[in-house]
Write a sequence for this structure.
């Protein structure tokens, strides 16, 4: 049984991952900004036998809030064996000339700085114990930059680089680092990107079978459950209809 912290567990990939790892008997710390959803999830997941939950709410964009949130963790929840840095989103799909700076800030702060801040809270304990596993959720957007999504792609490229850097710094302490690049996964991702425009969000997943959040949760669980001497450093997962980031075959 491991203690696993999943960021962005109120929705999509993070929620499915927390559910799967909980069902496998792990203790889970879930976080996200929507406290009502977190409370609901905590209640639901607590129904599993021998699974314990601690709800942690913070906005990963704010270092002070992150520090405060970690400060509220009871002693028995402070030994975090696995950190899943999943929280993140795309905001907008605009050329740089028309991009909104608040969208850029949200993506850079949430996808990059948030991941770093949370990692900073967890890494010292892992180093002391000479043990741990960090799973960073990047994207196929890191493999191929696309027009109008430049800032989002840049944040995911940064996640790839941070994963490589973490592995360089942490391997000697027995800490594994896994970087996961999902292709198109049908979650609230596009709804957030298009600011609640459901019709536009639906077009992203129309005419083919996109990945489900549970598919990525399975992959994450595979990496987390690998024997201790095995480090899956990188994993890219596409829906079968997606040949590369911008090529999807639709019926
Ligand atoms: P969702 O929108 O369904 O979930 C995003 C999660 O991240 C929510 O739980 C949200 O929680 C949390 N989150 C976002 N911003 C913040 C923030 N500033 N502070 C705290 N929590 C935050 O999207 P997905 O599940 O699809 O996305 C999860 C990850 O997967 C992201 O990093 C995304 O970039 C990546 N990804 C997604 C792909 C896709 O096609 N869906 C493909 C490749 C990668 P709350 O709103 O409660 O704070
Ligand atoms: C999400 C996948 O291709 O829409 O990271 O950027 S993509």
């Amino acid at each position: 049984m491991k203690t696993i912290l999943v960021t962005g567990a109120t929705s999509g990939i993070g929620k499915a991952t927390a559910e799967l790892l909980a069902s496998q008997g792990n203790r889970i710390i879930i976080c996200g900004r929507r406290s009502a959803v977190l409370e609901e999830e905590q209640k639901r997941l607590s129904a599993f036998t021998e699974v314990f939950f601690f709800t942690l709410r913070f906005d990963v964009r704010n270092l002070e809030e992150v520090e405060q949130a970690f400060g509220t963790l009871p002693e028995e929840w402070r030994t975090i064996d696995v950190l899943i840095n999943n929280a993140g989103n795309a905001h907008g799909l605009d050329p740089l000339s028309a991009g909104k700076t608040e969208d850029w800030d949200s993506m850079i702060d949430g996808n990059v700085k948030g991941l770093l801040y949370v990692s900073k809270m967890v890494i010292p304990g892992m180093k002391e114990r000479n043990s741990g596993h960090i799973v960073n959720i990047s994207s196929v957007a890191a493999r191929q930059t696309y027009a109008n999504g430049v800032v989002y792609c840049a944040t995911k490229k940064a996640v790839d680089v941070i994963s490589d850097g973490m592995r360089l710094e942490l391997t000697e302490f027995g800490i594994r680092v896994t970087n996961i690049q999902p292709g198109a996964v049908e979650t609230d991702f596009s709804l957030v990107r298009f600011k609640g425009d459901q019709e536009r969000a639906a077009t992203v997943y129309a005419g083919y079978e996109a990945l489900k959040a549970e598919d990525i949760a399975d992959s994450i669980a595979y990496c987390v459950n690998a024997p201790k001497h095995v480090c899956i450093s990188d994993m890219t997962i596409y829906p079968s209809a997606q040949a590369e980031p911008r090529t999807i075959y639709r019926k």
User: Anything to note?
Assistant: The first helix runs from residue 12 to 23.
